[in-house]
Write a structure and sequence with these properties.
The strands form 3 sheets. This protein has a 4-stranded antiparallel β-sheet with strand order 1-6-7-5. The protein has a 4-stranded antiparallel β-sheet with strand order 2-3-4-8. A two-stranded antiparallel ribbon has the order 9-10. The chain folds into 2 domains: about 5-135, N-terminal domain of MutM-like DNA repair proteins; about 145-270, Helicase, Ruva Protein, domain 3 (Orthogonal Bundle), CATH 1.10.8.50. It is elongated and about 60 Å long. Helix content is about 25%, strand content about 20%. A hairpin with a 4-residue loop joins β3 (about 60-65) and β4. With about 280 residues, the protein is an alpha+beta fold. α1 packs across α6 (about 200-220). The protein has helices at about 5-20, 40-45, 145-155, 160-165, 175-185, 200-220; strands at about 20-30, 50-55, 60-65, 70-75, 80-85, 90-100, 105-110, 120, 260-265, 265-270.
Length: about 280
């Protein structure tokens, strides 16, 4: 699933092309893409103008000249493309014309091979934010993200540190890739109990994960296959700079010992047993 850097790359690219455009002739090509929406999405969006493209963690939304927003979640394989004309791609799920005054019109397409992603209308809460993601924590790139509050909450958790980093109610935007990269940078095994950490380590974790995700942003995100691309259909290349994720058996950049892969929450974790010694119960 795309994590914060990949979603931010898509958001920034879409904002450059979609800002100020008017939505017209909305087509629903596959009902699963709008399965969580209440009402007819085509009618709800017709004629709306896009005034901003926003994001929190892995969630993205279009702010419109309407009392609601359009939430977009990429799921496992979602893509957004902006083309000069319809692509005819077999995995297009939702599309519309992007009407722009003074310049040629564009064509918006939401592609999703596995159909885990989707779109839905959401109203706003008292802060003006989408009510559908009110339970999602702020991410480290949010200017209102409170590092001290995160550190205090982290050390009170009765779970493992990697599970905590993947909890979108505690900190959003982090998935398997950047959790592993962050933990390698701070020298922590993912199974370390949170209550064994101190606040200083919590602050260090935020610094490390912000740095690694910012590095990924500069590289256009992490692409392991053709399912993650930006709005122009281009892949990111941060996978070449990963220190542990996906590098089983390769030498650790720090100590030279081989990277190890283990099972974690029905997925894989990658770590260095030397630089990240496993937590041993007393």
């Amino acid at each position: 699933m795309p994590e914060l850097p990949e979603v931010e790359v898509v958001r920034a690219g879409l904002e450059k092309l979609a800002l100020g455009t008017k939505i017209s002739v909305v087509r629903i090509h596959h009902p699963r893409a709008v399965r969580q929406n209440n009402g007819d999405l085509s009618r709800q969006l017709e004629g709306a103008r896009i005034i901003r493209v926003s994001r929190r963690g892995k969630y993205m939304w279009l702010e419109l000249d309407r009392p609601f927003v359009l939430m977009i979640h990429l799921g496992m394989s979602g893509q957004i493309r902006v083309n000069e004309s319809p692509s005819g791609h077999p995995h297009v799920r939702v599309s519309w014309n992007m009407i722009r005054s003074g310049t040629p019109n564009c064509y918006f397409e939401f592609l999703d091979q596995r159909t885990f992603g989707g779109m839905r209308i959401s109203d706003r809460d008292h802060r003006g934010e989408p009510s559908s993601i009110s339970h999602i924590a702020k991410d480290p790139f949010d200017p209102l993200f409170d590092v001290d509050q995160f550190a205090d909450s982290l050390v009170k958790r009765t779970t493992e540190v990697k599970r905590a980093l993947l909890d979108q109610h505690l900190i959003s935007g982090i998935g398997n890739i950047y959790a592993d990269e962050c933990l390698w940078r701070v020298g922590l095994d993912g199974t370390t109990p949170c209550e064994r950490l101190d606040r200083r380590t919590g602050v260090e974790i935020v610094s490390a994960v912000t740095k690694v995700m910012n590095d990924a942003l500069v590289a256009g995100g992490t692409s392991f296959d053709s399912l993650y691309v930006n709005v122009n259909g281009e892949s990111g290349y941060f996978s070449r700079s990963l220190s542990v994720y996906g590098r089983e058996g390769e030498p650790c950049e720090r100590c030279g010992n081989p990277i190890t892969r283990s099972r974690f929450m029905n997925r894989s974790s990658f770590h260095c047993l030397t630089c990240q010694p496993p937590w041993l119960l007393p």
